[in-house]
Protein backbone atom coordinates (compact mmCIF):
# COMPACT_ATOMS: atom_id res chain seq x y z
CA UNK A 1 0.00 0.00 0.00
CA UNK A 2 2.73 2.44 1.03
CA UNK A 3 4.66 1.90 -2.23
CA UNK A 4 1.69 3.05 -4.34
CA UNK A 5 1.06 6.06 -2.08
CA UNK A 6 4.69 7.18 -2.27
CA UNK A 7 4.69 6.89 -6.07
CA UNK A 8 1.43 8.83 -6.30
CA UNK A 9 2.54 11.73 -4.09
CA UNK A 10 4.98 13.45 -6.47
CA UNK A 11 2.51 14.29 -9.31
CA UNK A 12 0.01 15.62 -6.76
CA UNK A 13 2.63 17.82 -5.09
CA UNK A 14 3.39 19.37 -8.47
CA UNK A 15 -0.30 20.21 -9.05
CA UNK A 16 -1.72 21.17 -5.65
CA UNK A 17 1.36 21.81 -3.52
CA UNK A 18 3.36 19.79 -1.03
CA UNK A 19 1.48 20.81 2.11
CA UNK A 20 -2.00 19.97 0.76
CA UNK A 21 -0.78 16.68 -0.72
CA UNK A 22 1.02 15.60 2.46
CA UNK A 23 -1.92 16.47 4.70
CA UNK A 24 -4.49 14.68 2.51
CA UNK A 25 -2.34 11.59 1.98
CA UNK A 26 -1.68 11.29 5.74
CA UNK A 27 -5.43 11.43 6.37
CA UNK A 28 -6.09 8.82 3.67
CA UNK A 29 -3.43 6.53 5.22
CA UNK A 30 -5.07 6.88 8.64
CA UNK A 31 -8.61 6.30 7.29
CA UNK A 32 -7.50 3.28 5.25
CA UNK A 33 -5.86 1.69 8.30
CA UNK A 34 -9.14 2.11 10.22
CA UNK A 35 -11.24 0.24 7.63
CA UNK A 36 -12.69 -2.92 9.29
CA UNK A 37 -10.33 -5.88 8.75
CA UNK A 38 -12.86 -7.89 6.71
CA UNK A 39 -12.81 -5.17 4.02
CA UNK A 40 -9.27 -3.80 4.45
CA UNK A 41 -7.52 -6.53 2.45
CA UNK A 42 -9.57 -5.76 -0.65
CA UNK A 43 -10.71 -2.15 -0.72
CA UNK A 44 -7.84 -1.06 1.56
CA UNK A 45 -5.36 -2.09 -1.10
CA UNK A 46 -7.47 -0.74 -3.98
CA UNK A 47 -7.47 2.84 -2.67
CA UNK A 48 -3.65 3.32 -2.98
CA UNK A 49 -3.67 1.68 -6.41
CA UNK A 50 -6.48 3.98 -7.49
CA UNK A 51 -4.53 7.01 -6.25
CA UNK A 52 -1.43 5.94 -8.17
CA UNK A 53 -3.41 5.38 -11.40
CA UNK A 54 -5.19 8.71 -11.01
CA UNK A 55 -1.86 10.49 -10.36
CA UNK A 56 -0.80 9.58 -13.89
CA UNK A 57 -3.86 11.35 -15.36
CA UNK A 58 -3.88 14.71 -13.57
CA UNK A 59 -1.75 16.88 -15.86
CA UNK A 60 -4.76 18.29 -17.70
CA UNK A 61 -7.02 18.60 -14.64
CA UNK A 62 -7.66 21.72 -12.59
CA UNK A 63 -6.51 21.88 -8.94
CA UNK A 64 -10.19 22.08 -7.91
CA UNK A 65 -11.02 18.73 -9.51
CA UNK A 66 -7.83 17.09 -8.20
CA UNK A 67 -8.54 18.25 -4.64
CA UNK A 68 -12.18 17.20 -5.03
CA UNK A 69 -11.16 13.68 -6.06
CA UNK A 70 -8.75 13.39 -3.11
CA UNK A 71 -11.46 14.64 -0.74
CA UNK A 72 -13.91 12.07 -2.12
CA UNK A 73 -11.38 9.26 -1.66
CA UNK A 74 -10.82 10.37 1.93
CA UNK A 75 -14.57 10.64 2.62
CA UNK A 76 -15.06 7.17 1.13
CA UNK A 77 -12.29 5.59 3.24
CA UNK A 78 -13.52 7.25 6.45
CA UNK A 79 -17.12 6.17 5.86
CA UNK A 80 -16.16 2.49 5.74
CA UNK A 81 -15.70 2.48 9.54
CA UNK A 82 -19.50 2.23 9.70
CA UNK A 83 -19.38 -1.27 8.17
CA UNK A 84 -17.89 -2.87 11.28
CA UNK A 85 -21.02 -4.96 11.97
CA UNK A 86 -21.71 -5.97 8.36
CA UNK A 87 -20.20 -8.75 6.27
CA UNK A 88 -19.34 -8.61 2.57
CA UNK A 89 -22.62 -10.21 1.43
CA UNK A 90 -24.70 -7.76 3.45
CA UNK A 91 -22.78 -4.81 2.00
CA UNK A 92 -23.15 -6.16 -1.53
CA UNK A 93 -26.92 -6.59 -1.08
CA UNK A 94 -27.23 -3.11 0.42
CA UNK A 95 -25.32 -1.50 -2.46
CA UNK A 96 -27.25 -3.42 -5.11
CA UNK A 97 -30.60 -2.45 -3.60
CA UNK A 98 -29.80 1.21 -2.91
CA UNK A 99 -28.19 1.77 -6.32
CA UNK A 100 -30.86 -0.11 -8.31
CA UNK A 101 -28.16 -2.52 -9.57
CA UNK A 102 -25.72 0.22 -10.66
CA UNK A 103 -23.23 -0.69 -7.93
CA UNK A 104 -22.51 -4.14 -6.48
CA UNK A 105 -19.24 -3.81 -4.55
CA UNK A 106 -17.19 -1.28 -2.58
CA UNK A 107 -14.82 -1.07 -5.54
CA UNK A 108 -17.76 -0.09 -7.78
CA UNK A 109 -18.87 2.43 -5.16
CA UNK A 110 -15.41 4.03 -4.99
CA UNK A 111 -15.32 4.50 -8.77
CA UNK A 112 -18.91 5.79 -8.86
CA UNK A 113 -18.25 8.26 -6.02
CA UNK A 114 -14.96 9.56 -7.44
CA UNK A 115 -16.54 9.99 -10.87
CA UNK A 116 -18.85 12.55 -9.27
CA UNK A 117 -15.83 14.60 -8.17
CA UNK A 118 -14.30 14.38 -11.64
CA UNK A 119 -17.51 15.96 -12.92
CA UNK A 120 -17.25 18.68 -10.25
CA UNK A 121 -20.20 17.29 -8.29
CA UNK A 122 -18.72 17.39 -4.80
CA UNK A 123 -20.17 16.04 -1.56
CA UNK A 124 -20.47 19.12 0.65
CA UNK A 125 -21.40 17.52 3.97
CA UNK A 126 -19.39 14.32 4.47
CA UNK A 127 -20.27 12.01 7.31
CA UNK A 128 -21.47 8.45 7.60
CA UNK A 129 -21.62 5.67 5.02
CA UNK A 130 -25.38 6.27 4.90
CA UNK A 131 -24.80 9.94 4.00
CA UNK A 132 -22.59 8.84 1.13
CA UNK A 133 -25.27 6.46 -0.17
CA UNK A 134 -27.96 9.13 0.18
CA UNK A 135 -25.82 11.59 -1.78
CA UNK A 136 -25.32 9.06 -4.59
CA UNK A 137 -28.63 7.21 -4.73
CA UNK A 138 -31.27 9.14 -2.79
CA UNK A 139 -32.86 8.79 0.61
CA UNK A 140 -33.24 5.32 2.07
CA UNK A 141 -36.94 5.87 2.82
CA UNK A 142 -37.58 6.53 -0.86
CA UNK A 143 -35.94 3.22 -1.75
CA UNK A 144 -37.87 1.29 0.88
CA UNK A 145 -41.14 2.68 -0.40
CA UNK A 146 -40.61 0.72 -3.61
CA UNK A 147 -42.85 -2.29 -3.05
CA UNK A 148 -42.35 -5.64 -4.73
CA UNK A 149 -45.07 -4.61 -7.20
CA UNK A 150 -43.23 -1.40 -8.10
CA UNK A 151 -39.90 -3.18 -8.43
CA UNK A 152 -41.31 -5.69 -10.94
CA UNK A 153 -42.96 -2.86 -12.89
CA UNK A 154 -39.77 -0.79 -12.82
CA UNK A 155 -37.71 -3.70 -14.17
CA UNK A 156 -40.31 -4.39 -16.84
CA UNK A 157 -40.31 -0.70 -17.79
CA UNK A 158 -36.57 -0.86 -18.43
CA UNK A 159 -36.98 -3.88 -20.71
CA UNK A 160 -39.99 -2.46 -22.57
CA UNK A 161 -38.10 0.75 -23.28
CA UNK A 162 -36.20 -1.23 -25.94
CA UNK A 163 -39.48 -1.52 -27.85
CA UNK A 164 -41.45 1.58 -26.89
CA UNK A 165 -38.70 4.01 -25.94
CA UNK A 166 -38.25 5.45 -22.44
CA UNK A 167 -41.08 8.00 -22.51
CA UNK A 168 -43.80 5.63 -23.71
CA UNK A 169 -42.56 2.82 -21.47
CA UNK A 170 -42.63 5.09 -18.40
CA UNK A 171 -46.13 6.29 -19.28
CA UNK A 172 -47.31 2.68 -19.64
CA UNK A 173 -45.81 1.79 -16.23
CA UNK A 174 -47.68 4.66 -14.60
CA UNK A 175 -50.95 3.52 -16.20
CA UNK A 176 -50.37 -0.05 -14.99
CA UNK A 177 -49.69 1.13 -11.44
CA UNK A 178 -52.81 3.28 -11.52
CA UNK A 179 -54.93 0.38 -12.82
CA UNK A 180 -53.51 -1.98 -10.16
CA UNK A 181 -54.32 0.50 -7.40
CA UNK A 182 -57.92 0.60 -8.64
CA UNK A 183 -58.47 -3.17 -8.42
CA UNK A 184 -61.22 -4.20 -5.98
CA UNK A 185 -59.69 -4.36 -2.45
CA UNK A 186 -60.86 -7.97 -2.09
CA UNK A 187 -58.59 -8.95 -4.99
CA UNK A 188 -55.68 -6.52 -4.59
CA UNK A 189 -53.20 -8.79 -2.81
CA UNK A 190 -53.91 -11.65 -5.21
CA UNK A 191 -53.66 -9.55 -8.37
CA UNK A 192 -50.70 -7.48 -7.17
CA UNK A 193 -48.70 -10.63 -6.57
CA UNK A 194 -49.37 -12.03 -10.05
CA UNK A 195 -49.81 -9.34 -12.73
CA UNK A 196 -46.53 -7.42 -12.18
CA UNK A 197 -44.61 -10.73 -12.28
CA UNK A 198 -46.36 -11.61 -15.54
CA UNK A 199 -45.46 -8.20 -16.94
CA UNK A 200 -41.81 -8.58 -15.94
CA UNK A 201 -41.63 -12.10 -17.42
CA UNK A 202 -43.15 -10.82 -20.65
CA UNK A 203 -40.65 -7.96 -20.76
CA UNK A 204 -37.75 -10.42 -20.48
CA UNK A 205 -38.91 -12.08 -23.69
CA UNK A 206 -39.18 -8.96 -25.87
CA UNK A 207 -36.46 -10.11 -28.25
CA UNK A 208 -38.38 -13.31 -29.10
CA UNK A 209 -41.79 -11.72 -29.67
CA UNK A 210 -43.09 -9.50 -32.43
CA UNK A 211 -43.88 -5.89 -31.57
CA UNK A 212 -47.53 -6.56 -32.43
CA UNK A 213 -47.73 -9.46 -29.95
CA UNK A 214 -46.13 -7.43 -27.18
CA UNK A 215 -48.37 -4.45 -27.83
CA UNK A 216 -51.57 -6.51 -27.88
CA UNK A 217 -50.69 -8.17 -24.58
CA UNK A 218 -49.56 -5.05 -22.75
CA UNK A 219 -52.42 -2.86 -23.96
CA UNK A 220 -55.06 -5.39 -22.90
CA UNK A 221 -53.76 -5.81 -19.36
CA UNK A 222 -55.16 -2.42 -18.35
CA UNK A 223 -58.79 -3.07 -19.47
CA UNK A 224 -58.70 -6.37 -17.60
CA UNK A 225 -57.57 -4.64 -14.41
CA UNK A 226 -60.23 -1.95 -14.79
CA UNK A 227 -62.87 -4.65 -15.23
CA UNK A 228 -62.11 -6.02 -11.77
CA UNK A 229 -62.18 -2.65 -10.03
CA UNK A 230 -65.54 -3.62 -8.50
CA UNK A 231 -66.60 -7.23 -8.02
CA UNK A 232 -69.60 -6.53 -5.78
CA UNK A 233 -67.94 -7.65 -2.56
CA UNK A 234 -66.94 -11.10 -3.83
CA UNK A 235 -63.61 -12.50 -2.66
CA UNK A 236 -61.01 -14.41 -4.66
CA UNK A 237 -62.48 -17.84 -3.88
CA UNK A 238 -65.99 -16.80 -4.93
CA UNK A 239 -64.68 -15.29 -8.19
CA UNK A 240 -62.70 -18.45 -8.92
CA UNK A 241 -65.79 -20.61 -8.37
CA UNK A 242 -67.75 -18.48 -10.83
CA UNK A 243 -64.97 -18.86 -13.40
CA UNK A 244 -64.82 -22.65 -12.94
CA UNK A 245 -68.59 -22.92 -13.32
CA UNK A 246 -68.90 -20.57 -16.29
CA UNK A 247 -65.99 -22.18 -18.13
CA UNK A 248 -67.19 -25.73 -17.43
CA UNK A 249 -63.90 -26.56 -15.69
CA UNK A 250 -61.71 -25.23 -18.49
CA UNK A 251 -60.49 -22.30 -16.39
CA UNK A 252 -59.89 -22.47 -12.65
CA UNK A 253 -59.07 -18.99 -11.38
CA UNK A 254 -58.79 -15.31 -12.18
CA UNK A 255 -55.26 -15.68 -13.56
CA UNK A 256 -56.46 -18.39 -15.97
CA UNK A 257 -59.14 -15.94 -17.08
CA UNK A 258 -56.51 -13.21 -17.45
CA UNK A 259 -54.34 -15.44 -19.64
CA UNK A 260 -57.34 -16.48 -21.73
CA UNK A 261 -58.30 -12.82 -22.16
CA UNK A 262 -54.82 -11.89 -23.39
CA UNK A 263 -54.68 -14.99 -25.59
CA UNK A 264 -57.94 -13.98 -27.24
CA UNK A 265 -56.62 -10.47 -27.81
CA UNK A 266 -53.43 -11.90 -29.32
CA UNK A 267 -55.58 -13.63 -31.94
CA UNK A 268 -57.17 -10.28 -32.79
CA UNK A 269 -60.39 -10.95 -30.88
CA UNK A 270 -60.21 -7.89 -28.63
CA UNK A 271 -63.06 -6.74 -26.43
CA UNK A 272 -64.14 -3.27 -27.55
CA UNK A 273 -65.83 -2.31 -24.29
CA UNK A 274 -64.89 -3.78 -20.93
CA UNK A 275 -66.56 -2.21 -17.91
CA UNK A 276 -66.73 -5.11 -15.47
CA UNK A 277 -65.90 -8.76 -14.90
CA UNK A 278 -69.17 -9.92 -16.45
CA UNK A 279 -68.16 -8.31 -19.76
CA UNK A 280 -65.04 -10.48 -19.82
CA UNK A 281 -66.95 -13.62 -18.83
CA UNK A 282 -69.51 -12.98 -21.58
CA UNK A 283 -66.78 -12.29 -24.12
CA UNK A 284 -64.84 -15.47 -23.36
CA UNK A 285 -67.45 -17.90 -22.03
CA UNK A 286 -70.85 -16.77 -23.26
CA UNK A 287 -74.15 -16.17 -21.48
CA UNK A 288 -74.46 -17.73 -18.06
CA UNK A 289 -78.24 -18.09 -18.30
CA UNK A 290 -78.17 -19.96 -21.59
CA UNK A 291 -75.47 -22.24 -20.31
CA UNK A 292 -77.37 -22.93 -17.09
CA UNK A 293 -80.56 -23.71 -18.97
CA UNK A 294 -78.69 -26.17 -21.14
CA UNK A 295 -77.19 -27.78 -18.04
CA UNK A 296 -80.64 -28.12 -16.44
CA UNK A 297 -82.10 -29.73 -19.58
CA UNK A 298 -79.13 -32.06 -19.82
CA UNK A 299 -79.59 -33.08 -16.19
CA UNK A 300 -83.30 -33.91 -16.72
CA UNK A 301 -82.47 -35.95 -19.81
CA UNK A 302 -79.81 -37.89 -17.93
CA UNK A 303 -82.29 -38.72 -15.16
CA UNK A 304 -84.92 -39.73 -17.71
CA UNK A 305 -82.39 -41.92 -19.49
CA UNK A 306 -81.70 -43.82 -16.25
CA UNK A 307 -85.42 -44.24 -15.53
CA UNK A 308 -86.22 -45.73 -18.91
TrEMBL record:
Protein name (database record): Uncharacterized protein
Lineage, uppermost ranks: unclassified sequences, metagenomes, ecological metagenomes
Amino acid sequence: MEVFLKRAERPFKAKIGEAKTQSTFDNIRKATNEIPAKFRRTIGSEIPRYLFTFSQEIDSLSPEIIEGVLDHILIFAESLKDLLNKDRNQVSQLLTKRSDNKVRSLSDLLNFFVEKAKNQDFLKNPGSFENLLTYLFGDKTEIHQLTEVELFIKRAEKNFSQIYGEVKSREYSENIKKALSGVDPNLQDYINSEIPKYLFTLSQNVENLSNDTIERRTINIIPFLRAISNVDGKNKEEINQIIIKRSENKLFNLIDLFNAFLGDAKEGNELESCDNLEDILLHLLGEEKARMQFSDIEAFLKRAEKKY
